[in-house]
Amino acid sequence: MSDCLFCKIIEGEIPSSKVYEDGDLYAFRDIEPQAPVHVLIVPKKHIASLDDCKPEDGALLGRIMAKVGEIAKIAGITNGYRLVSNCGEDGFQTVEHLHFHLLGGRPMTWPPG
Ligand code: 5GP
Ligand code: ZN
To answer: Which residues are placed with Cβ below 5 angstroms of ligand 2, an ion?
Structure first.
């Protein structure tokens, strides 16, 4: 999608700090980290949010989930992490390209604010 920030990052039109990449996904450091390690994991396919996932996206989503542990290790996380996807207004999603926040390097609080 031409006017999507994360599509531009995936295409390399906007610079980013890459952690991992394969045919399905791109993972890079968040520009405003909320934890010592804060990586964004995004599908290369433009999907606006979890609300916009279709049944045919299931295999892609499964492959992404199955890579999270490996990406956490590459990012330097050694003691657990949290994976979050904000969706819609109450979820406080600000970029409309599906992404998963991988947060680690400190204990997380529960419930989230
Ligand atoms: P959301 O609020 O949609 O769940 O998450 C969007 C995330 O993208 C935020 O954590 C924000 O810091 C991050 N972000 C926004 N613009 C950029 C950018 O240009 N580069 C990087 N690396 N992260 C960004
Ligand atoms: Zn996009």
So the answer is: 1, 4, 6-7, 46, 97
